[in-house]
Structure of LacI family DNA-binding transcriptional regulator:
Amino acid sequence: MSDVARLAGVSKMTVSRVMAGQSASEATRERVQRAIDELGYVADAAAGALSSGRSSFVAVLVPSLSSSNFSDTVSGLTAVLEPQGLELLIGDTDYLPDREERLVRQMLRHQPRCIALTGSRHTAATRALLQRSGVPVVEMWDLPAEPIDMAVGFSNVNAAREMVRYLADKGHRRIGFLGGASDLDRRGIDRLKGFQLETKALGLDRDRVVRLGESPITMSHGAPAMAELLSRWPDTQAVMCVSDMSAFGAIMECQRRGLRVPADIAVAGFGNFEIGACCHPSITTVSVDAYGIGQRAGEAIVAALGAADGGGRRTVKTRTPYAVVPRESA
Amino acid sequence: MSDVARLAGVSKMTVSRVMAGQSASEATRERVQRAIDELGYVADAAAGALSSGRSSFVAVLVPSLSSSNFSDTVSGLTAVLEPQGLELLIGDTDYLPDREERLVRQMLRHQPRCIALTGSRHTAATRALLQRSGVPVVEMWDLPAEPIDMAVGFSNVNAAREMVRYLADKGHRRIGFLGGASDLDRRGIDRLKGFQLETKALGLDRDRVVRLGESPITMSHGAPAMAELLSRWPDTQAVMCVSDMSAFGAIMECQRRGLRVPADIAVAGFGNFEIGACCHPSITTVSVDAYGIGQRAGEAIVAALGAADGGGRRTVKTRTPYAVVPRESA
DNA sequence: TTGAAAGCGTTACCAA
DNA sequence: TTGGTAACGCTTTCAA
């Protein structure tokens, strides 16, 4: 920066102001800009953050970057935060709470303006770390009873219950559930819980549950899970899957066996992934607005940052919509 | 840090050394650690970077985070770089060179130890920026004739040619190609180029090309593209798609029309996505080791960082393997 | 509108 | 093994 200042014949402060877009005469601004371009000067963000006491980072932690649901959420966050001059520090927890804790600790070192987490289950140390740091927190994809700070999401339990009611309304009584074997995917567990609560409420058979495959359960797990379900309960009329991915795998297994979907067996998914709209038969699912969760979270973050210096109030919980999307498969 | 030092009864320097894992007596180390825990002290990364002159960031730019190919590459990078204490600064260029330029400029502000880019097409300004910065660069997913610095990937042109030969060996003469309409997906363009070169070399019809949909072409585009191809060249025997995603959409369209794959028409994909292995019929494809590209890129980065202080040599180009994977669809 | 000085929290370097 | 001092490159603050 000294080099730029020297070349432009001004002080460092003037260079700093020009870069920040603050008041400066047009002539000065131009000379400084010319010097910047000539030298290819790029300001050091670490020095800026240290000096001003505020970084431009927002930390985002998702369980898996390869799930389109979560990468859509990241896109939504990007769309809102980037225009504010904020940068995303993205981390992938791999569904592991310990890894989340390590990543939170690591990201805290960069003094992020806010931290966006997925879900509401965190280690005690993670919560303590966040509380102590004083950094605003948004929990996404769930509506925890006691959020750390802010939350943007929906009740996976209730969304799953709605799908059960949809299937029951279609006349199905013997309904199965296909989910992952691991308890780490809390949203998956909540959907299973919703299945169990609603089948009980409706007086339906609650036992037809197959849990198979590590989080995140992918389409590869759908087929063996379906096979297992059919071998244990051959008279099953409808199957609800923890996601469209597993539903797709399940439907493929049905096709291999010559079972018609939905004539012989109905199959429903969850999450409204692109595959469910394209495949044949198309998959009845629950749409959840993954991108919108990111957007809303971004808006909550911007509001919280504004409130910090403006003294305004912040929204604590934002409920995002979900809806059963009837298609061909159920 | 002063607080920790005071509480532990040592100097700031000792605290710094304990945190860096440098020489310190066991007793001191323990007292300092206790103070750190008690105060919940988290070191400021910006100050550390400023002082030491080196950050712990590696910047990674991919065209799209929601493509499993690229998120697999990011996983590969993470697996290698995280154990080295490096952190990924991930950016999504959305296939736009201008956006890439903006992101490169932004990431350069954080003084990354290395920058990993996707592909070999960049704006002149991007190249200039990178050259001036002196930061090591890895270009992934391609083998440019003149890499900026290092490169890890394979020739998409040659990989596509191999698929054409595979289809020709199966006896197909009238082969079509389904790709995206935009020129931004350079890997897609290279695959099309490979298709055209090899069909010409084999004396086959080169005109059966349908380009439809923005980058990245997804499964939703496969169906209309297939429909277009069939309406223009109804006697097509085999179709090669720019990715498994579009191949899947194309196959769905065939099923809707009652066309049997591969009996009536063969369909091949590219990239070995999970869907190709699960769906029915399973999709013949070209496997490309997306995760391995990330790993190798990570190793190249570690080597380059080591070479910087060790004086060793760095690998310039790393060729990653690809192979036609015969399945049911072609 | 511009400039000078102080200081942000850490690490490098040298001395004890 | 430990501590003091300077310095990293910028922004804040105050003064001109």
